[in-house]
Specification:
Blueprint: E1 20-26, E2 32-40, E3 48-52, E4 55-59
Antiparallel strand pairs: 1-2, 2-3, 3-4
């Protein structure tokens, strides 16, 4: 899939239907963390690849914050 910026996001290797889009976050000190997580755009798949404290984590559970 092609985004408005002209970038091609990788296809999801789990479901082959969605694409993985990057999500960014902010660290404890407010520094931006670019591409902290990649999430599949297919709602039935919702594959998640993220970095937590320097460790790469795979999963299917997407949690929302109360912040």
């Amino acid at each position: 899939a092609e985004m408005a910026e002209g970038l091609d996001w990788p296809e999801c290797q789990k479901c082959d239907k969605g694409v993985l889009i990057p999500l960014s976050d902010y660290g404890r000190d407010g520094a931006p963390i670019t591409y902290k997580a990649w999430v599949c755009t297919n709602p039935e798949c919702a594959f998640l690849l993220r970095i937590d404290n320097g460790e790469v984590a795979f999963g299917k559970v997407v949690k929302t914050s109360e912040k």
